[in-house]
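INFO  loader      accepted 1 record
INFO  loader      residues=106
INFO  predictor   begin
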Amino acid sequence: MFNIGGGEFVLLGLLALLIFGPDQLPKAAAQVGRVLRQLRTMADSARSDIQKGLGPEFKDFDVEDLNPRRFVQKHFWEAGDDGAARRRRPASQLNGKRPPFDSEAT
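INFO  predictor   done
INFO  writer      dumping tokens
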């Protein structure tokens, strides 16, 4: 969970106990849980509104595809038959020719 180890989690719990006190800690935890639930609900409704607004031609659209890392993985890496990721060949080399190189332009 967020790359937090066991010791760090205990330290955060003790820190929260010191800040809020033993009587206010359950109330604060419940309020944080409510806020997280509301945020998740708002994000899900926004995602569905975007997908409805784009129309049926974008039914496979995933908001996560807008993440640059996911975009690169999706378009430059492909899974082989065995499930292992392989590097795709650049589009410029698909026809067997390399693009012209201009040393002055670089």
